[in-house]
Specification:
single chain, alpha/beta, 18 helices, 11 strands, globular, binds pyridoxal-5'-phosphate
């Protein structure tokens, strides 16, 4: 193995990888897979569905049917991190609380719910439930619509949170929802889905096996639609909407992002769709002034190996002698999405890995210093700030730790983790 980073990766060491492909012209594909138009289209569609979301999920009424999370400054946690590392963090530190997103309590509420709504709109227009996209979308909550959707299935393979978002939304609209869960998925996520009326199929294997089986069963059934985490354009666009939303929030707080005030963002990565889409959305907003780092567990850094080897989804973490197993269930993915890897290669700043042993202490620190609970996968996002390789940044920098999940975890599970 010539690449020293990949050598460290294969020893399950924590690494700090700086992306040599950033801004490389040859990485800018001839025909980019996504455009600003795609993201705008997703934003508009989410607005059209706002009345439907308010109908099924009254908790979204205060934000008028738009599912968006708070952005909170966490200066106490910043002090804790500085004390832990003995280094000052220049600038302000914020937590983007997707951990507290309405309806499904994780970053998957962005992409997953969006994809179900897109599919629903397609069916509604095709079957005449909606005349056109200016029609009254509340019709989709009526009996005729429910009866129509009941004839269709929506399936997905998941380590947990994607299953929650797809399952909860699909079941609410009246579809038959089938979630294929990998062995990594936590029991409470399966219980919650069943309680919401979804069918959960459990696998003894990893995420790849759950996806492969789900995809196969869905393809054999013309009434079934498969949410394909590895290849989905819809998921990606749903996630990308975060860029404009964050910009609005920062402006509302009187914060501008520019050359003097660069933005640093840290996002946990599994297959890549969520961090990739968010990164894409942010780069549309801020171009050169945003610097995004992905964070992955030492045992399942699929995006890092995909990018650093230049082989994308042709390699898996197992090819590097790793297990793919981690306490960070949302990140337990052995092979990255090639579509996402290629799209973000010219944009991301780098990727880092984190040892599982750090996750619980970090989420405890956040709980004790700020009173905010997040799950271990989300705790990974603090890792770049803990690493000595992190470059010194402007005193006016803005750091955002993207907390990707946690709010739906039952109390007894939280207590056990915090202990
Ligand atoms: C899914 C997930 C991620 C990563 O998203 P991918 O699209 O799989 O890369 C990060 N954190 C949590 C909590 C997740 O559930």
């Amino acid at each position: 193995m010539q690449n020293p980073i990949l050598e460290s990766v294969s020893k399950a060491e924590e690494v700090f990888w700086v992306n040599p492909g950033k801004n490389k012209v040859e990485n800018n594909q001839e025909k980019p897979a996504f455009s600003a138009e795609d993201v705008k289209d997703a934003e508009e569609r989410l607005k059209r569905f706002a009345p439907v979301l308010m109908y099924y999920f009254p908790e979204t009424r205060e934000t008028e049917g738009i599912i968006e999370s708070p952005l909170k400054e966490i200066s106490n946690m910043k002090s804790v991190l500085e004390a832990k590392t003995g280094r000052k963090i220049n600038g302000k530190l914020f937590l983007k609380m997707d951990s507290h997103l309405k309806v499904s309590g994780s970053v998957k509420a962005r992409g997953g719910i969006y994809e179900v709504l897109k599919h629903t709109e397609d069916i509604a227009l095709k079957t005449g439930l909606l005349r056109d996209t200016k029609d009254d979308y509340l019709k989709l909550t009526g009996k005729t619509a429910q009866d129509t959707f009941a004839k269709y299935k929506i399936q997905v393979g998941s380590t947990g949170n994607l299953g929650l978002s797809i399952g909860i939304m699909s079941a609410a609209l009246g579809y038959e929802a089938i979630v294929h869960m990998s062995a990594d998925a936590k029991q409470w996520k399966k219980d919650l889905l069943r309680a919401r009326g979804a069918t959960v199929i459990e696998y003894t294997g990893d995420y790849a096996q759950a996806v492969a089986n789900g995809r196969e069963q869905s393809e054999a059934d013309p009434t079934s639609y498969f949410v394909d985490d590895e290849h989905s354009r819809e998921l990606f666009c749903g996630y990308a909407v975060a860029g404009g939303r964050l910009d609005e929030q920062l402006r509302g707080m009187g914060i501008s992002v520019d050359e003097q005030h660069p933005l640093y963002v840290y996002i946990p990565c599994g297959v890549g769709g969520a961090p990739g889409g968010i990164t894409y959305g942010l780069s549309l907003m801020y171009g050169e002034n945003v610097h995004v780092y992905f964070v992955e567990p030492v045992q399942s850094p699929c995006m890092l190996v995909g990018l650093a080897s230049g082989k994308y989804s042709a390699v898996s973490v197992q090819d590097y002698g790793l297990t793919g197993k981690t306490e960070a269930d949302g990140l337990a993915v052995g092979r990255c999405s090639e579509m996402v890897a290629r799209t973000i290669e010219p944009i991301i700043e780098g990727a880092v890995t984190v040892d599982d042993s750090k996750l619980c202490p970090l989420i405890c620190d956040l709980w004790e210093s700020e009173g905010i609970f997040i799950e271990p996968s989300a705790g990974a996002a603090f890792q770049p700030l803990m690493m000595k390789e992190m470059p010194e940044v402007s005193p006016d920098a803005i750091h955002i730790v993207w907390a990707t999940g946690g709010n739906m975890m039952p109390q007894e599970w939280r207590d056990r983790l915090l202990e």
